[in-house]
Amino acid sequence: MAGRHRLLLENAQQLVLVCSRGEEYLQRDGAANLALLPGASLVVGLDGCIKAVGQADVIRNQFSGATFERIIDCSGKCVLPGLVDAHTHPVWAGDRVHEFAMKLAGASYMEIHQAGGGIHFTVGCTRKASEEELFDTFKHRLERMRSAGSTLVECKSGYGLNLETELKMLRVIERAKQSMDIGISSTYCGAHSVPKGKTATEATDDIINNHLPKLKELKLSGEIHVNNIDVFCEKGVFDLDSTRRILQAGKDIGLQINFHGDELHPMKSAELGAELGARAISHLEEVSDEGITAMARAKCAAVLLPTTAYMLRLKQPPARKMLEEGVIVALGSDFNPNAYCFSMPMVMHLACVNMKMSMNEALVAATINAAYALGKSDTHGSIETGKQGDLVIINSSRWEHLIYQFGGHEALIDYVIVKGKVVYQNERCGTMSSY
């Protein structure tokens, strides 16, 4: 196939496709039979999409007359899909390292929250920060996520709790969408906490009557494109009725429902999400058996966050029961001032050790299923012809090293590629080429 193409990756020891038949997601049995090609190559076109995947000699013959902007010899290396981080809070000012010491001394999440710390501390710092300050720190965090293999990241607002600051955060996310080589799914999370001086009912009314109409207006004008709506459905925050009202209002203006549920207390959030047609629900440490059944039936993804249970010393979400009952299980880092982790390889490791997931299940949860949770599995999450050329190359002959080497991704990852363009290159691989 003559012509010019963006990228040729050749002779990979293992090419981990994840899926090979256009699956939207994989459940437990699909994860057990992970699609993998030994001795394989792939081609990414100038449009950033994968043009061909196959045995190295077949691809060599098929593209014998072609030219490429970049060729990478992957002999002895593994190629995987770019990782997908299905839950992050990456736009904020003011760290909470002092609260980590409080937690270690025994203070609970809600005790810190009720003392004016937690989300409210970050809200105060974020309201004071300029848009430029927020963008600079956000950009740096995204770069760190990307160097750890994430090529699609869900990014929430939620540290404003008033319309002005929520819009400031969403503008920062929109700016990164337009200017950075990384995929972003943006989430309006104005119902992250009840603002000081308001009741939950007043906050709910404000979001429905003021915030969401403004988001609809900005979407129509092309200024801000939000993908998802989120609510922290929790005892002492937004109850089930307020959560229902906000999520339904968001759905009515075209947003995907993707919210926090059943984290600290059993709230029947999973049942509510299934009823409303939610794309995904996150946390679920306290999910009920009925909620698990409802999510499986509704094809509502469970975004599990092993860093949160680890940091807050919560019980782990019941990942094995979810997998056995047919729930679509995804993973996220929950990167935020309370759970400061950029690395999806570390998240996968924790999911295996603490939630008893297999390495196959963890990789599926951090690729195709995380993409499904964001409504993006038609373009992301696997190495298949027609999908976006988002890829990770690791310096190992077995892909499992990405999970096995806890905290070792900085030495292990050679290249991270978005739309066929190298966006991160390990120092030992030489100087990055420009496009």
TrEMBL record:
Record domain Amidohydrolase-related: where: 79-423
Coiled coil: none
Catalytic activity, EC: 3.5.2.7
GO terms, molecular function: imidazolonepropionase activity; metal ion binding
InterPro entries given in the database record: Amidohydro-rel (IPR006680), HutI (IPR005920), Metal-dep_hydrolase_composite (IPR011059), Metal_Hydrolase (IPR032466)
Pfam family, one: Amidohydro_1
GO CC, one annotated term: cytoplasm
CDD domains named among the record's database cross-references: Imidazolone-5PH
Keywords tagged on the record: Histidine metabolism, Hydrolase, Iron, Metal-binding, Zinc
Catalytic activity of the protein: 4-imidazolone-5-propanoate + H2O = N-formimidoyl-L-glutamate
One GO process term, biological-process aspect: L-histidine catabolic process to glutamate and formamide
Cofactor dependence: Fe(3+)
Pathway: Amino-acid degradation; L-histidine degradation into L-glutamate; N-formimidoyl-L-glutamate from L-histidine: step 3/3
Family the entry assigns: Belongs to the metallo-dependent hydrolases superfamily. HutI family.
Name used for this protein in its record: Probable imidazolonepropionase
Natural source organism: Rynchops niger (Black skimmer)
Originating gene: Amdhd1
